[in-house]
Each structure stands twice: as C-alpha cells, then as structure tokens.
Amino acid sequence: MDFGAMVAAEQAGIPRVVVGVIASGALTRIEHIRNPVAKLRAVHGLRDDPGCTELTRDLVVSPFPQSFRHPDFPLPATAVSIRPESGRDTGRHAAVDWLATGTEPGRVYLTLGTIFNTESGDLFLRVLEGLRRLPVRVLATVGVNIDPASISVVADNVRIERFVPQSAVLPHCDLVVNHAGSGSVIGALARGVPVIALPLGADQELNAERLTALEAGITLDPITLTSDEIHGSALSTLASDSLRVGAQRVREEINEMRSPAAIVAELECLMGRGR
C-alpha cells in the first residue's frame, strides 16, 4: 500500500517486491485509489495504468495461506506464497510459565493487538469477566500503553500483562480470543488453535470473515458483546471438534508452504534485471 515508493521505484527503473501484510488481501480498493494514483503517475511522466497493474508487475510475496485469501481479491499472477514465520522465542517468561501450570483443563490467550487495544473501551473488562468463570487459565496482554492494574477483573485463573511474545504463548493455548489482526489470527492458526474474533476495524472484519468461512473459529460483535456471551461462546468453542479440526487444517496447509528462503532465487533474478 506504499504507492509513493512504488511509483518512485518505477520511475527509477528499479524492480519492486510487494510484501503482503493483510491476510485476507482485501483492504485496498483499486476503485478508490485509481484516480489519485493516476494523477501521481502523470506528474512523474509515467504511462497511464487504469488497472493499477504496475503495482504488482514484478513480484508479490504473500506470507499467508492461500485458503485465507478472500475469493473476491485473488493473488496476481506474479505472486509467490510463502510460509508465515516468526522468530521462535526461546527465553523464559514468568507469565508463560504460569499459563502452562495449574490444574485447570484449558488455556486461553486474550489480546487486542497494539493499536486497537487502546480504542476498545471496556471490551477487555467484558471479555475477562466472561472468561474468568471458565475452567481455564487466561493470559491477557493489554499493550504497553495500558496499565494492567487498570483492569479491574481479578481472579486466580486470570493474569494480565502488558506484553508477552505471542510465539511463546501460543504453544500452550487451547483457544485464542483476539481482534482478528492479520498477524494475530494467522499466528494462532499456524499453531492449529481456534480463534474467537472480535474485529475492531481495518482489515479485521474481512479476516474474521475468512476465519469463519474456514470453520477455524467464530466471530462475535465487540460492540454488543456481553460477558455472558463470551463465556458461552468460549465454552462451546473449547468443546468444538469441528473448529479444532478447521484450525488444524490451516496449520497443515501452512506447514506445507514454501519457506521464506525459497524466494531468494526470485529476488536475485529481479536484482540482475534491475542492473
């Protein structure tokens, strides 16, 4: 979506690699950007491109499973899909150790990301009030800009932190409750963990739609959500074999994808062409 950089590179004759950051692939609408991009291209003496095909001419890298891509927004012919990978966290974290212990039969991770978490009103309170009554341990991360002490839900089976690496938490989880951000939802599915999505904006509605379509989780309305609703939904999701199988199906697809290192040859070819 960095159109200025793309136009500058095109004018300079430098190949462009576009790396997708939206799991569903459906945030940018060509009909909305066509005119502004056309004006920008004209200013810099570039040929008319009404279909905005120049934006994806060279190479598109999609670090997401193809099944998660929204069918109305297919990948271009120049796209290469690679396995989404994050650094494996090998450190010890007291919060993760706490989550992994205890006698509760289930483990739940709650996060609303690092942007929309500060715009979510009392959503943390409503969700935690519902989750604390389940036979599970709940680890919630609220972000660096929210004081965990400001969350008034207190229970022996709930722990609230500003931040814990997702890669360290997910191996211990049976359920993730999140905002359906691309990294958050794909991170959970890469571990085969079902998701309850509470989309708040940006690409999250469409990500949640794909999550539900793949039967790897469910979507709830964060505006009308009550603590009783999240309690019941979490209970049924934890008990759902079909949602677990759906999440594991996506995990298997991810495991079979090409590694990021596999695109080095394509990058080298582009570099040679650029020279």
Automatic annotation (TrEMBL):
Signal peptide range: none
Erythromycin biosynthesis protein CIII-like C-terminal domain span: 130-269
Pfam family membership, one: EryCIII-like_C
Transmembrane segments: none
InterPro entries: EryCIII-like_C, Glycosyltransferase_28, UDP_glucos_trans
PANTHER family on file: STEROL 3-BETA-GLUCOSYLTRANSFERASE, STEROL 3-BETA-GLUCOSYLTRANSFERASE UGT80A2
Protein's name in the database: Glycosyltransferase
UniProt organism field: Rhodococcus jostii
